[in-house]
Structure prediction request, 359 residues.
Amino acid sequence: MQILQLIPTIAYGDAVGNDAIALKKILKKMGYVSNIYAESVVEPLDSKTAYKIDKMPKVNEDDIIIYHLSTGSELNFKFAKFKCRKIAIYHNVTPPEFFEQNDEFIKGINEWGLEGVRFLSDKVDYCLADSELNKQDLIDLNYKCEIDVLPIVVSFKDYKKTPNRAIVKKYSDGYKNFIFTGRIAPNKKQEDLIAAFYYYKKYYNDKSRLILVGSYKETDLYYMRLKKYVEEIGVEDVIFSGHIKFDEILAFYKVADVFLCMSEHEGFCVPLIEAMMFEVPIIAYNSTAIPGTLGGSGFLVDDKDPIFVAKCIDKVVSDKELKENLIKNQNERLEDFKYEHIAEQFKNYINAFIDKEQV
Prediction:
């Protein structure tokens, strides 16, 4: 029996793509023929990781295709036509309204994505969702099949690699480093991070910097607005990393004093797990899947007032006992996301699905 995976685009460093790669390894260890097929395989990835969809073999009705559902794509509609057993993994689609006045193209892609999610509601045999939030979204969209929650698989050993030494040296200079990891996008609300940082730097510690680790295009309207905002309020030491190598990402976590997240839409938020791995205390806005991923750990805020958030940052930085408790709770929560635990959960779900289908 084949258990194949379908994904619209697979790219280096993307959480959905990384999830597919991790699941492929688990499926192969289970003894199944398993490969990943995508409409677009972005370099430097190659056929060792995934094949273009035109290389996909013929499937039989006993085979299984796992489809990663996260964006607008023709695959959302083509997937329903395969004559085999079908599983959808729902990673969520960012609500299109976040991109109004910022990126009409992405807004359209996400509208198309939600249309695809609705289309598949009665056409799949089983669903996995990254989070309880994503599961509830599928329920609200009248999905007819059974739905289980499976967090994104994160390979902890990847994060034990050596961080970029040059970055660690450069930013280990006595400044307080506050980071957020995630592409520059309107739902991530980087402007709220900048505002809170402005007040922290002004009232608490001038020797501090905000590092926004994430990709952008120079022509992105949202990125240009953020740059203009930084200039208008006159705050210094706001760094946009752009797309960087993995060892450089590790280095920024290594030098971070606090991980800040003011995002207003996350289907899971892998960077929260990454911050936990590096024992960086987390301050995060209480929205969407964020409290579920934190699972009672971290420092959740319900108020985005930048003066209040700046005060919270100072409290975490200056209160040693609070910081230690935050890290302790994060370490305990991290246990729930260990690779072995999630891999076993996935195996159990797949085996239960196959057994049920064979009855």
In short: The mean pLDDT is 95.
